[in-house]
Amino acid sequence: NLNTAEPPNGNGTDGNDTDGDDAYGADTAIADTGGNDEDGAVTCSDDETLDVSLRSLTGHVLDCHTFEGVITLGMCVVIIRAALLTKFGPKSLLPDAALKNKVLRILDYLCHVISNPPYKTSEPSETDSLLIWTHVFSLITEDIALLSGEKMLEASKILRREQSREFGGLTEAGRKVDLSLCYAGIELSNIEFKRAGITPRDINMQSRKNIRLGQCIQQSHQTIGLTDLSLLLADISGYVCVFYNIVEFEGVWAVGRATMDFAHLPTTEGALIGFMNDSSLAQIFAYFDILAEKGKKAKRAKERHDVQLAKQGVGQAVGSAQPIAPPPKSKTLTNNVIFTPTKKRT
Q1: What is the model's pTM?
Q2: Domain extents in the chain
């Protein structure tokens, strides 16, 4: 389930600047997130930390009436992130601080996109949407490879070959996908993109295609011996994303939405305010956390599968080898290699 808990009441901050070192409440946004134990260590969960971090920025920038546009928010984000890196160092961030750093980088990028959209005043295309989503994904994940550019889904080639053997005359090439997500070369999920404003019929066609591709990925996971065959997929129309999963229910594989709400990326100032108060970013973080955990399991399963294949290959080679007859005995004595006589012995 990618849903997060309801946000806390209020703006998530106490309004105090403990060190008095910045006017934007940077220290409060960094330190006062969640409950602390006796040693001062952060004890809240990742989802709670993420939610409080976003609402802290909202409290300092929006509720304090300092929000004068996206540029102002971008400047505030830069200041808070600089304070964060100064406090912890860029290479020694604790998990809580590393999460905040990712959130701030994403907000900084979104502010830049909103203030200076790459597509200017024209309607964003499918490629425009893919580039922005992929960049946000790259700021979140460090373990999942994002393969775009209409690459072939390797898992779909297996099903295509089976269809070719059964029906004949069909291509054995894999299906092209918009964005394939892999861990250590293992395909884990797929995301299909469409431009904003498409018809419901096109959205349904996109979903059905993605489900078929998900079945191919499931089959590849079953081949390597992965026991958990549930799958998370996503469809994106413009800047609205829906996550859904394929799970087994009483012996039948069913497809359903994984979240109660849709995730979105903001492209306007008003949408940015809503983005900072809803669960969109938390859903995306949870999606990649689940993929990373499943990727580790799939990697171990594939390593065991590779060992079994290697053993089978050696066994087949040994089993199919023909026995080698010993050479016939020589009827003559060979020359002495140490003291060679002047005449050959017979």
Answers
A1: 0.73
A2: 7-116, 125-317
